[in-house]
Amino acid sequence: MKITVIGSGYVGLVTGTCLAEVGNHVMCLDVDPAKIALLRAGGIPIYEPGLEDMVRRNVAAGRLSFTTDVAESVAFGEVQFIAVGTPPDEDGSADLQYVLAAARNIGRHMQEYKVVVDKSTVPVGTADKVRQAIAETLAERGVDIGYSVVSNPEFLKEGAAIEDFMKPDRIVVGAEDDLAIERMRRLYAPFQRNHERILFMDVRSAELTKYAANAMLATRISFMNELANLAETLGADIELVRQGIGSDPRIGYHFLYPGAGYGGSCFPKDVKALIATGREHGHAMRVLTAVEAANDAQKLRLVDKVVAEYGEDLSGRHFALWGLAFKPNTDDMREAPSREVVRALVSRGATVSAYDPVAADEAARVLDGTAGLTFAQDMMSALQGADALLIVTEWKMFRAPDFEALRAALKAPVIFDGRNMYDPAWVRGLGFVYHAIGR
Ligand SMILES: NC(=O)c1ccc[n+]([C@@H]2O[C@H](COP(=O)([O-])OP(=O)(O)OC[C@H]3O[C@@H](n4cnc5c(N)ncnc54)[C@H](O)[C@@H]3O)[C@@H](O)[C@H]2O)c1
């Protein structure tokens, strides 16, 4: 098939590349000329394991191309994926301006039937707005051309995006006409060779499914964070509690890790957007409101512990910080807890030496001008002369550090571990003061 992907960010680039990988011809469009120039030059704008090679391979095979030319991109694909950003508006609702701009562009240039696929995470009712936007632009042109609008939310995880796209747990497709259903079935056939993974449903249910999934995962995290904070006060170990409840198949082990709060480009904004959708329709989303409040507090949990140890005034204190990305295997800094931690420490007068194996450049960009923050070249040099180490992202390389070297580099052997990386008895046995979450 010939496919156009509108928006060449995390989702668009992965979607386009994986669709090319199975033999389709894909054109990725973006409004950002620098991004397209970089892609055309063989670089990629994000860190995602395996993606660069796959992009290169498919470009070389002539199946993947990049453009900023809207007319060319609309003409190209019989299927047009919309994979642009849907950031939160001021009231928390999803800002649809980019999605609707993409829809109008399709309407402005299309010459024959298109299947338009909403892959961006969009509130229930957006497909209707996309349909309307295309109808209006076609009417302005005085032409009558057929098209279908489909909802196909994306469930990939940054850091494992290719694996998730190539071997999805499920593919949710909200489509209500036979032609679109047939196209979507053909499009996804290569990704479900061993069993049926497509769940066809009505468009509104598909749109809601995406928010329901992220809201449920965020709820599990906030629930565990609150329980962890209580466990600390009660003298219980949340890690043992986690195993105790995870063994119940109705609960399961996944997504039960307490920590320094959830971040990233999805959970915070999707929880906000679902609360806003509820509000708009007269439903108070009480659980999700609490999930969000608990997460906001949890992002500062490590700082609370630092303050409990050293007092509110941290001037003259220097801290090492391991991990800046919102989670391992990505350089995504959107809503990363590290941003709150750094800000809170330096606002109390401390200085911070941070290390992240891939997100340092992106962190330097988003935290530009943060006085008191410097970046270390490697994990051990970040520790030099620090009063304590704070761990904010659970990169694999932090799992088994040389504790002797760590103690020698730090001014005092103190660790604030926001990701429960170590066995408390073991590190305390090595002479460290070890603060974890719920242990
Ligand atoms: N990042 C994730 O892990 C993830 C996972 C699932 C779903 N989603 C959803 O997918 C959507 C995209 O997320 P992302 O992380 O890929 O965003 P992103 O910011 O990385 O990429 C969006 C891209 O769209 C481009 N763009 C904006 N308007 C455009 C237009 N009119 N025409 C062409 N390009 C345009 C931007 O320049 C940008 O490059 C969001 O709705 C998000 O919630 C993201």
Automatic annotation (TrEMBL):
Lineage: Bacteria, Pseudomonadati, Pseudomonadota, Betaproteobacteria, Neisseriales
Protein name: UDP-glucose 6-dehydrogenase
Superkingdom field: Bacteria
Broad class of enzyme this protein falls into: oxidoreductase
Reaction(s) the record says it catalyses: UDP-alpha-D-glucose + 2 NAD(+) + H2O = UDP-alpha-D-glucuronate + 2 NADH + 3 H(+)
One Gene Ontology term from the biological process aspect of the record: UDP-glucuronate biosynthetic process
Function description: Catalyzes the conversion of UDP-glucose into UDP-glucuronate, one of the precursors of teichuronic acid.
Domain UDP-glucose/GDP-mannose dehydrogenase C-terminal: 320-424
Sample GO molecular function, one term: UDP-glucose 6-dehydrogenase activity
EC number per UniProt: 1.1.1.22
Similarity comment: family membership: Belongs to the UDP-glucose/GDP-mannose dehydrogenase family.
Annotated metabolic or biological route of this protein: Nucleotide-sugar biosynthesis; UDP-alpha-D-glucuronate biosynthesis; UDP-alpha-D-glucuronate from UDP-alpha-D-glucose: step 1/1
Pfam families cross-referenced by the UniProt entry: UDPG_MGDP_dh, UDPG_MGDP_dh_C, UDPG_MGDP_dh_N
Chain positions recorded as NAD(+) binding sites: D30, K35, T86, T121, E158, K269, R334
Active site: C266 (nucleophile)
Key words of the record: NAD, Oxidoreductase
Binding site for substrate: F155, L156, K157, E158, K210, F255, L256, Y257, P258, G259, G263, K327
InterPro entries xrefs: 6-PGluconate_DH-like_C_sf, NAD(P)-bd_dom_sf, UDP-Glc/GDP-Man, UDP-Glc/GDP-Man_DH_C, UDP-Glc/GDP-Man_DH_C_sf, UDP-Glc/GDP-Man_DH_dimer, UDP-Glc/GDP-Man_DH_N, UDPglc_DH_bac
